[in-house]
Design brief:
- This protein is an alpha+beta fold.
- It contains nine helices and five strands.
- Strands 2-1-3-4-5 form a five-stranded mixed beta sheet, with helices on both faces.
- Helix 2 crosses helix 3.
């Protein structure tokens, strides 16, 4: 069915204008980004097929490599970039809302909940730093480095520079394990010690290093292993 064959208030753009964005399904919102159909299929049908390729989950769509998204029927390079840009904006909105949240970060579970939407379903490791003031309020957080599926380096000079710029009291290091196991490896233990000692040299404490997996996490501070 073509879009023009739908009732006006059921067409994605008109529906959004009349009822608001929340009234639209994920596929309908995606259809607005795609703009038009192709190959005899309506834009809604193309959008539905894209969502099916991501098992109906926006998190999987956001994690889909751009190269794969480009190959989806009816998408192509320009539309794939548009979709990726929109999803990245959504991710950044989440990050900003988390930053202005004035709740005091008091546990590794809170760190896990804060970072899971950012790190879940990634096929590579990312290292993030969370900067806190003396009341444990989040002053900011940022991705430090992005690596491979099995490792990511730690940009120590950047962490130190940002900690000094923000005049923070604490830093929490966070990275993900795409393997699904949060258990730290030897390099995780070594890097934790290096970051801790370097931060101490500028008067900042490494509060924790949290490793995020799919549905679990490991906290160096809370495991009481003596490694932090």
């Amino acid at each position: 069915m073509r879009i023009k064959d739908l009732c006006p208030d059921e067409r994605p753009r008109e529906k959004m204008r009349l009822r608001g964005a929340k009234a639209l399904s994920n596929a309908e919102l995606l259809a607005i980004l795609l703009g038009s159909g192709t190959g005899g299929k309506s834009v809604i049908e193309v959008a539905q097929e894209v969502m099916i390729s991501a098992d109906g989950k926006l998190t999987l769509l956001a994690a889909m490599p751009l190269e794969r998204l480009i190959t989806q029927k009816g998408v192509g390079e320009v539309r794939a970039i548009t979709i990726a840009a929109a999803l990245e904006l959504g991710r950044r909105v989440f990050e900003e809302s988390a930053i202005v949240d004035k709740r005091s970060v008091t546990s590794a579970k809170m760190v896990f909940q804060l970072m899971l939407p950012v790190l879940k379903n990634l096929d590579h490791e990312e290292c993030w730093a969370i900067y806190l003031n003396k009341a444990n309020f989040v002053m900011g957080k940022e991705m430090i480095t992005s690596g491979s599926m099995e490792t990511t380096p730690v940009d120590l000079p950047r962490i130190l520079r940002r900690a000094i710029e923000k005049q923070c009291t604490y830093v929490i290091l966070v990275h993900n394990h795409p393997s699904g196991s949060p258990t730290p490896g030897p390099s995780d233990i070594t890097q934790t010690k290096i970051v801790k000692n370097a931060l101490a040299g500028v008067g900042v404490s490494l509060m924790d290093h949290v490793i995020v997996a799919e549905d679990s996490f490991y906290s160096f501070a809370e495991e009481r292993t003596g490694r932090l």
